[in-house]
Structure formats: structure tokens, C-alpha cells
Design brief:
With 124 residues, the chain is mostly helical. It has a domain of 78 residues: Cytochrome Bc1 Complex, Chain D, domain 2. It has seven helices and no strands. The chain is globular, with a radius of gyration of 22 Å. The protein starts with a helix and ends with a helix. Keywords: Electron transport, Heme, Iron, Metal-binding, Signal, Transport. This is Cytochrome c. InterPro entries: Cyt_c-like_dom, Cyt_c-like_dom_sf, Cytochrome_c_Oxidase_Subunit. Pfam families: Cytochrom_C. It comes from Luteimonas flava.
Length: 124
């Protein structure tokens, strides 16, 4: 009984409880789901905007950052597949680097496709 009072006192919990108790409304036919494993098409211009912060490490001449013995990988001109795979691995945590894992967590799959589209077009 006391738990029910807390549910009804909270607007969020009250709305959830009311939705759970309401009869199911008829639903419209489901829209066609996107085909599985179809790669997203990246937008290089959007990717250019998203890679602004990447320049802090990856844009340094000689690809070395402030850590004396840490070589920063070249990302400009890499294949889009490599870049997409690397960012997804950082996002999943199967490729480890704290900064890159934090960066990748903020990207959607479309962001990753856009970033790969832009970076793969760079020649330097």
C-alpha cells in the first residue's frame, strides 16, 4: 500500500503506472525496418565539423602529442572501413585508450560514418 502511495505521488511514476494499467491502443502497421548490416553513408561536411577536437592530438605535426613517447596514429587518409571499425571498437571498449573511448562514447553510428567520410578524404 505504501509503495502505491509513492507511485501516485510522483508524476513520473504516476504516468508510468497509468500507462501500464491502460488498455493497449491499436497500433499502426510497423514501418519497414532498415535492412540489417547496411553501412551508413557518411557526410564529409558533417564529419569535418565533428573532427574539430581530433586536431588536438591527431593534427599535430609528426603525429606526436605532449606525451614524449606516445605516437598518435595518422587518421587522415585512412580507409573509411578502418576508421569506422576503430571508432566502434573504442566505443565498445574492445580497443583501449581512455581518451578515445570517451570520445567514441559520444558518437552515434551516423557520427562515426560522417567522421570516416571526412577523414578518409584527407591526403595529409
Amino acid at each position: 500500500m505504501l509503495a502505491a502511495c509513492f507511485v501516485l505521488a510522483s508524476p513520473v511514476l504516476r504516468a508510468s503506472a497509468l500507462e501500464a494499467a491502460a488498455p493497449a491502443a491499436p497500433t499502426a502497421p510497423a514501418a519497414a525496418a532498415p535492412a540489417a548490416n547496411v553501412p551508413l553513408v557518411g557526410n564529409a561536411e558533417t564529419g569535418r565539423q565533428l573532427t574539430y577536437t581530433c586536431q588536438g592530438c591527431h593534427g599535430v605535426d609528426g603525429y606526436r602529442n605532449v606525451y614524449p613517447h606516445y605516437h598518435v596514429p595518422k587518421i587522415g587518409g585512412q580507409s573509411p572501413e578502418y576508421l569506422v571499425n576503430a571508432l566502434h571498437e573504442y566505443k565498445r571498449g574492445t580497443r583501449r585508450h581512455p581518451t578515445m573511448q570517451a570520445q567514441a562514447q559520444s558518437f552515434t553510428d551516423q557520427d562515426i560514418a560522417d567522421i570516416a567520410a571526412f577523414l578518409s578524404e584527407l591526403t595529409k
